[in-house]
Amino acid sequence: MNSRYTGTLGAVFRDFNPETSQVSGLKSRYTGRSKSRIWSAALLVILVLSLAAPSLGLPQEKTLADGVTLIQDINTDPQAPIVVTVLRVDPKKTGVKLAAALGQDRIIANDATNGREVLSTMVARKGALAGVNADYFPWTGDPLGLAIVGGELVSEPADRVAVGITAAGEVILDRLSFLGAITAPSGATSPLSGVNRQRGQNELVLFTPAFGAATGAKDGIELVLTLDGPVRANKDLAAVAASDPGPPAGSPAPGGGAILSAHGSAADWLQGSLHSGDKLKLRLDMKAVSGRSWDNVVEAVGGGPWLLRSGEVSIDAADERFKPDMSLVRHPRTAAGITPSGELLLVTVDGRQTISRGMTLSELAALMKALGAVEAINLDGGGSTSLSVTGLVVNSPSGGKERPVADALLVYAPPTPRPTASLKFADAAPLVVPSGEGRMLSLVDEAAGQPLSDELAAGIIWGTAGGIGFVNQKGWFVPIKVGTGSVIALAGDRRLELAVTVVPGRPANLSASIVPDPSGAPNRGQVAVTLTDANGNAVPGKAVAISATGAVPDTASATTDGSGAASFAVMWDSTSAAASVTISAAGLTTKAR
Q1: 97 pLDDT tier (thresholds 50, 70, 90)
Q2: In a 10 Å sphere around its CB, with 0-12 CB exposed, 13-18 middle and 19+ buried, how is residue 133 labelled?
Q3: Read out DSSP for 459-503?
Q4: Sign of CA dihedral 125, 127, 131, 134
Q5: What mean pLDDT is predicted for residues 225-251?
């Protein structure tokens, strides 16, 4: 393990005493942006790692490029299973570059994702070496906080922390607020409320071509501008009104221009202050809480809250308007940190799975400190948490498949040259495996069928596609979600792919509920049964038995269907004061509730 990585996960959990924080509810910074999502569930018994521990227990470190290292540390303790994946990036190294990217290169698109994109596709499409998901978003591609892409301000800060990259490649973290203004030829001014996001009451919002689709405004007035250059923060921007104020036209902002969209009192000001041909001035200022200048920042993504400041845990979730469940409940997490030498740590912690339970913010802060960070912030987590290397998924997204996200922080660098050998998977395709039954995968020399040398094996980068499970950086594969996908190995300039079909694992969870009979008869009911494996996959084709006291079922047994479900009709005994129904399947028993 590199000396800059100061502790393994075992040490983090052994020495860590979780903090508790009193935090208040999240308040949306403006109308139409979604609140934090809530998730809470009991930790499942960890069954899948009983055979995997020897392969998963030691941290793995692999050089992706000069200045970019992939680290994976996995704790297999059944009481605290955790999968942590880290990109350690030295932006001072020649050829290393950091950049923000929008899903589909726009805020909103007219498709099912509303402008979002899965991280692995974004990394591959942009030709990046690696990347992580970044800011929070509603169910559109609209980052909730700061986004600067290629020097252009495409989303204003939300009085939360953000990651910024200067023109010189320096990484800075800070909390920023926004103050925008528009000045008419008369000298009259009006607040400019935001950039490329849904307009609220009495607001004036600027929409640029980066927004993509039309503004979506149904009321108020809008005015088209031509701009004297791209929209940049903390600089005066000259513009000319290309139209009179009028009802929304339903068109996107033109190239080289923008749209001012206003409502209520802001619309009154716009109507009375600007007309076609008028010259005006825009100003979009960002102010850092620390007082540090962000004038030279050319790439940025938002997040929140703070985790570490000056080497100490400092979580300001309440001040940044996050709900207690977001801080105190274990979730999948993504974080960014800076080391004393200026390296950037991009970290994912998987969660909501049998192989990884996630972390609270206090636990995440302790992890970032153990990794060597002195400054660190949280980014969007939950189902968004993802880390990709050259388009491979190298962490284990909680939803199985990656969630399309609004934006990402990408890493560019010339990949380290590796020996190219004639290789193939030792397993024949397609590999059919039950969920939860981990196995070691390996590559062999294609001609001789011999195992790889230690040198070649150490250089393999492992990942998955299709959302079927997780493979660690030694090749140990844990199938999780039922479906078809692949395990992928990068060996030099070769990409080797093994088709995988995951089938349901051993039954682990049996539930049964009593629901009203469709007929509405008070003396009749239905018992709905569901059987799943430890990873929540439906288990079909299993016999289910029913026994009842004070009730008569229509049949003594049934078989689970393709969704793992079975049902019984029951007739209640009106003379019984304490009717009960017991369901049994695959060695499991439960009471219907």
Answers
A1: very high
A2: buried
A3: T-EEEEESSSEEE-TTSEEEE-SSEEEEEEEEETTEEEEEEEEEE
A4: negative
A5: 97
Show the DSSP H helices in 354-443 as ranges. 361-370
507-591: CATH, from 3.30.365.10, 3.40.50.970, 2.60.40.10, 3.40.50.720: 2.60.40.10
Sheet bearing 565-572, strands edge to edge: 507-516, 524-533, 565-572, 551-553
Residues in a beta bridge with 345 = 88, 337
Query: At 143, phi and psi to the nearest 5?
Result: -60, 135
Give whole-number Cα distances, 301 to 64, 85, 243, 335, 336, in Å. 23, 20, 33, 12, 11
Mean pLDDT of 5-10: 50
Residues 160/27, Cβ–Cβ less than 8 Å = no
Of 177, 154, 166, 209, the closest CA to residue 285 belongs to 177
Q: Which two tokens stand for residue 322?
A: 């996050």
Kindly provide the residue ranges of all beta strands, DSSP E only, lying in 369-460, ordered along the sequence: 375-379, 387-389, 392-393, 407-412, 423-425, 431-434, 439-440, 443-445
Question: Reduced to 3 states, what is the DSSP secondary structure of residue 375?
Answer: strand
Q: Tokens standing for 406?
A: 């609004």
Sequence-separated (6 or more) residues with CB below 8 Å from residue 190: 181, 182, 184, 204, 266, 269, 270, 273
List of residues 6+ apart from 166 with CB closer than 8 A:
172, 296, 297, 298
ω into 138 cis (within 30 of 0)? no
* pTM of the shown model: 0.90
Q: List, as one string, the DSSP characters of 150-212.
A: TTEEEE---SEEEEEEETT--EEEEEEEEEEEEE-TTS-EEEE-EESS---TT-EEEE-GGGB
Residues 410-432: tens digit of each pLDDT? 999 998 887 666 899 999 999 99
Cα dihedral 163→168→170→173 (10° resolution): -30
Burial 194-209 (b: 16+ CB within 10 A, else e): bbbbbbbebbbbbbbb
Q: What is the DSSP letter of 71?
A: E
Q: Are 236 and 247 in contact (CB under 8 A)?
A: no
| Positions of CATH 2.60.40.1080 in the chain | 423-503
Amino acid at 426: A
423-503 CATH, one of 3.30.310.50, 2.60.40.1080, 3.20.20.10, 3.30.1060.10: 2.60.40.1080
- Provide the 10 A C-beta neighbour count for residue 76: 21
Domain with CATH 2.60.40.10 in the chain: 507-591
Residue 53 per-residue DSSP state: H
Give CA 265 to chain center in angstroms: 38
pLDDT of the residue at 163 = 98
**Alpha helix positions (H), 545-584:** none
pLDDT above 70 covers what percent of the chain?
89
Cα–Cα distance for residue pair 501/480, rounded to 1 Å: 11
> Can you say whether the dihedral through the CA atoms of 432, 75, 375, 28 is positive or negative?
positive
CA distance linking residue 554 with residue 571, whole number of Å? 8
Tokens of 584: 């049994």
Cβ atoms of 125 and 133 closer than 8 Å: no
**Per-residue pLDDT reduced to its tens digit, 285-335:** 999 999 999 999 999 999 999 999 999 999 999 999 999 989 999 999 999
